Amino acid sequence: SMQRRLNRMLNSSHDHKLLALMDVEGFDPREVTVMVRDRKVKVSAEHEEEHTTARGKEYNYKNITKEISLPPGVSEDEVTYSL
């Protein structure tokens, strides 16, 4: 289950403080952007699909954005992330 996977990830990251988990299922890693600026971590993901149907072209577009403030005492260059 998703919760069990998250718990495993949390347990395996005990050396580092985990600031956030974000579900980006359905997005290609190249569609996910992580920026650290102004003491905030901003995660955004965009996905667009184009389908040709009998009625013409259809577009599916989805995006998610999350912004997390860094806790006091954590510098921007300490932030790491993995997909």
TrEMBL record:
<protein>
    <recommendedName>
        <fullName>Outer dense fiber protein 1</fullName>
    </recommendedName>
</protein>
<dbReference type="GO" id="GO:0005813">
    <property type="term" value="C:centrosome"/>
</dbReference>
<keyword id="KW-0966">Cell projection</keyword>
<keyword id="KW-0217">Developmental protein</keyword>
<dbReference type="Pfam" id="PF00011">
    <property type="entry name" value="HSP20"/>
</dbReference>
<dbReference type="GO" id="GO:0007283">
    <property type="term" value="P:spermatogenesis"/>
</dbReference>
<dbReference type="InterPro" id="IPR037389">
    <property type="entry name" value="ODFP"/>
</dbReference>
<comment type="function">
    <text>Component of the outer dense fibers (ODF) of spermatozoa. ODF are filamentous structures located on the outside of the axoneme in the midpiece and principal piece of the mammalian sperm tail and may help to maintain the passive elastic structures and elastic recoil of the sperm tail.</text>
</comment>
<dbReference type="InterPro" id="IPR008978">
    <property type="entry name" value="HSP20-like_chaperone"/>
</dbReference>
<feature type="domain" description="SHSP">
    <location>
        <begin position="1"/>
        <end position="83"/>
    </location>
</feature>
<keyword id="KW-0282">Flagellum</keyword>
<dbReference type="GO" id="GO:0030154">
    <property type="term" value="P:cell differentiation"/>
</dbReference>
<dbReference type="InterPro" id="IPR002068">
    <property type="entry name" value="A-crystallin/Hsp20_dom"/>
</dbReference>
<dbReference type="GO" id="GO:0031514">
    <property type="term" value="C:motile cilium"/>
</dbReference>
<dbReference type="GO" id="GO:0099513">
    <property type="term" value="C:polymeric cytoskeletal fiber"/>
</dbReference>
<keyword id="KW-0744">Spermatogenesis</keyword>
<keyword id="KW-0221">Differentiation</keyword>
<keyword id="KW-0969">Cilium</keyword>
<comment type="similarity">
    <text>Belongs to the small heat shock protein (HSP20) family.</text>
</comment>
